[in-house]
Amino acid sequence: MNRFVLVRYGELALKGGNRAFFEKTLRRNLQHALRRFPGARVEKLRGRLLAGPFENAFPPAKALSRVFGVSSVSPVLSLPAGSGPEEMEKGARALVEEWLEGRPPRGKVTFKVETRRADKSYPSTSAAISARLGAALLAAFPALEARMKNPELQVEVDIRSEAIFVSTGRIQGPGGLPVGTQAGGVLLLSGGIDSPVAGWLAMKRGMPLQAAHFDSYPYTSRESLQKVEDLAAILASWGEGLRLHVFPFTAVQEAVKASCSPRYHTVLFRRMMHRIARRLALETGCPALVTGESLGQVASQTLENLAVIDQAVDIPVLRPLVTFDKQETVDLARRIGTFDISARPFPDCCTVFTPSRPVIRGKIETALEEEEKLPWRELLEESFRGREEKDFPPTGASYTH
């Protein structure tokens, strides 16, 4: 019996005439995620993808469950198409035995068998197959107890024309669209909680990312920059890698602080960040910026201030978190693995230079008047000249400078 990973996808199935393009991109991304498993291939089934073969399907299943576009994966035993109930019972017993061996000994384990008969020519009904396998498993494993709702263990049988697949559960994927099915974006990545979550959500909609960070050394520490690099590495692990562009920003902030109204400091900082990121976007072929702003979360994120900030650039600014409250963002940060890094007590550039009474309802005319006090074009060029880059390949590869 061969071990494989059965891959399910949801939204891609609704793409009509473009479905082949989305499936092809997902298949490519899945194959890339299997780079640490030599010899494994991804094949197309009707409405599914199949990866393998493997000696142990659980490690590759975990890797594939982090690919955007995947709704769920299952490590499966593959039986020849048309196999009878005896072969299914043998496969199910082998998988359940493995599952029970990996569980600490305690009381009864609730379970059920769920059969899906995509191949309607198969002679037995789904209900009859589930009943037969359930009875066989109860007889073979005294620790099992049948339960139809919310069982601890669910044995699944997927009868298809290509093969019959037996599994003992699913691993949820992130859903969304495969990275590479949309044009790219430049993520303004700070060391905070919000921006990496925004980047993850943009990737979930198929966007490959470049990341721009604005460094205020020596006002911020090298530990602050390390936070950002660690966040970039997490985002890279969810996609096919990420390039981080670090721009020196201290001169900009010192010039704004010395020459402009304190109430407009944060808005002016953000306008300069957007200008720098916009230039990076044009250089890298990205038609949009991505930020972690949420409407009304802080003073600089009122609708009026966001309008003032956006006026500085002529490309779209996407804000995936615009309607999130903070707890929703925190919950998602914990899920994707960025929260503990963001929570390290090292401030970023905006935190260090935050004014005591920032403007809440900024005006574009006033912002333009304040910027006339600055040599902002020269400051932009200086920041670009000092840029440093670092590539973060997908998990398992070495970082390169």
Please, could you describe this protein's structure?
The protein has helices spanning 19-33, 58-64, 85-101, 126-140, 194-204, 222-238, 250-259, 265-284, 303-310, 326-336, 339-342, 349-352, 364-371, 376-385; strands at residues 2-8, 41-45, 48-54, 72-80, 109-117, 144-146, 153-159, 163-167, 171-172, 185-188, 209-215, 242-248, 288-290, 317-318, 388-392. The protein starts with a strand and ends in a 9-residue tail after the last strand. It contains 14 helices and 15 strands. By secondary structure, the chain is α/β, with parallel strands linked by helices. Strands 1, 2, 3, 4, 5, 6, 7, 8 and 9 form a nine-stranded mixed sheet that branches. The chain has a six-stranded mixed sheet with strand order 14-13-10-11-12-15, sandwiched between helices. 42% of the residues are buried. Helix 7 (250-259) packs antiparallel against helix 8 (265-284).
Any key phrases for this structure?
single chain; 14 helices; 15 strands; VC0802-like; alpha/beta; Rossmann fold; 20% strand; 401 residues; six-stranded mixed sheet; disordered C terminus; elongated; nine-stranded mixed sheet
